[in-house]
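Can anyone check this?
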Amino acid sequence: AEYGASFATEGDTEVVVAAYRYLGEECVRELRGMFAFVIWDRQERRAFGARDHFGIKPLYVAVDGTDVYLGSEKKSLLALLGERAGEVDQRSLQHYLTLQYVPEPGSLHTGVRRIESGTTFTVVDGVLHTRRYFHPTFPIRADVDKRRRYRQIQDVLRDSVRVHMRADVTVGAFLSGGIDSTAIAALAKLENPDLLTFTVGFERTGFSEIDVAAESAAAIGVQHITRVVTPQEYMDAVPLIVWYLDDPVADPALVPLWFIAREARKHVKVVLSGEGADELFGGYNIYREPLSLRPFEKLPAGVRRLLGTASRRLPDGVRGKDLLRRGSIPLERRYYGNARIFRDDELGFLRRRDPDVSYLDVTRDLYADNAGYDAVTRMQHIDLFTWLRGDILVKADKMTMANSLELRVPFLDKEVFAVASTLPVSERVTRETTKYALRQALRDVVPAHIFDRRKLGFPVPIRHWLAEEMYDWARAIITESGAGHLVDKADLLQMLETHRRGPLDLSRKIWTVLILLIWHGIFVEQRIQPEIPEPVYPVRL
C-alpha cells in the first residue's frame, strides 16, 4: 500500500516482483520467511535473484562459459550439462566425510555450485556476481527484565506461527518428543483448532518418541497420526532418498522424515516444524562445553598445549582425559559444527587425499567474522552457516518437497532471530540445561511432561541395525560399488566388521560412507536407478 502497488492474485510471487520493481536489490531486506527466486529484468537486461536469510530453500548454479544456469534441483543442471558438470569435487568430498554433508557453496560436482543463504546475485552478460545481505549479529542485552524478555520471546514466536499458518489449504505440524515441535504445535492449535500432528518412530525400544508425542498431542488437544518404520522399509527407501537429495547428506534422520512427510501428504499440503530453535536459542548440549572449559581459557597457550600432550598419554577411559584434550585446543580448531565424522587423519581409506584440504577451511572465515563474541555465540554463528543450512534445512526441504509437501519453520524467522540474538549466554545455556530462556518463555505453552525432557528428534537405531538387520545390505553396497577408484573397499569392509563385532561404535562413519557410495552409484555410475513413486495426493483438504 505504501507504494501504491495493486495485485491480481493472492500469490507471494507477485509480491516479490512488486518489491523488486519499487525497491530494486534492496527488496530482500523487506522479505520475511523462505524464498529462492530469480527475476529477469528486461529493462536492465540482467537477472537478479536471492536466497532467504537462513537457507531454507535451495538454489543451484552452473557457469558454462558465458552461460549461467540456475535451478532449484541439481539434477536439472546435471541433465543439461552432461559431462560438463565435471568430476567428483575432491575438496567437497573430504569436507563431506568430515561433516556428513557438503558445505555451501560447494557440491560434489566440480561444475555445479550453490547460491549461498542470505545472498543476492546478479547475472549480467554471462557474469555472475553475488553479495551477502544477511550478516547475523548478536547485540546481546543483559539489562532486560527477565519476565519482559520471556514475554517478548513468546510474543514473537506466537506471531511467527500465526504468519506461517496463513494458507488456503489445511496446515499440519510435525511433532516429536521435544519442546520445539511441541511449542509450534501448541501455538498452531490456537490458530487452527482442527490441527493435525504427525510423528514417526521405530519398533526398537528406546528409539521412538511416539508415546511421548501422543501424550503431548492429547494435552494440546490436537488430532495425531503416527507412522512406524521397519528396518526393511528403511533400507528400501534409502536409494530413492539419496536421489532426491542431489548431494549426499548422511543424517540417518532423513529416512524417518521421508516417511512422515509421505504420511502427512495424505492429509495436508503444508506442515510446520521446529527446525532452527537449537541454533537460535542455544539448544545443543555441545554449547555447554565452554562453561566447563572456562578454567582452561585463563591458562597460557603453552600450558594448554602441555595439558593436551599429557592427555594423550592417559589410557582410554580415564575420567577427564577428553576434557583435558579439548581444553587444550583453541575453539577455532575444536569446534567446526555439530557433526564430526572423520578427522583428517582418519581418511586413509581414500585413494586420493588432498593434504591441503582441511575442516578448518569451512570455518576459518566464519571465525574471523565472529571474533570478539563469547565462545557460545561463536559456536551458534558457526552452526548457522554450516550445520543448519548444510544438514538440517537440506533434509527438511528435500524430504518434504519430494512428497509435494510444503514445510514451514516458524523459528527461522528474521523477527524471531532479532529477539534470540539479544539473549545473554546465561539465558541460552547453563550447566544444567539448554535453551533456558526459550523454556521459560514456553512454560505456560507446552505440557509439563515436555518442559525439561531431553529431545531425541526422530532417533534412528542405526548403530544396532548396521550390526544386525542391515549388515548384509551394507556389505553389499560396499562390495558392489564402482567407487573403488575413490575409496579402498577393503578398508571399508573391515570397518563394517569391526563395528559388527563391537564394542566400538563406528555406525556414523559407516553410514556416511554408505550414503556416499549410493550417491556415486546413482549420479556417477548410473548403476542404481531408484523407482520414482507416484505422488501422494491428499484425501483431506
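Reply from J.R.: I decoded it. Confidence is low (pLDDT under 50) at residues 537-541.
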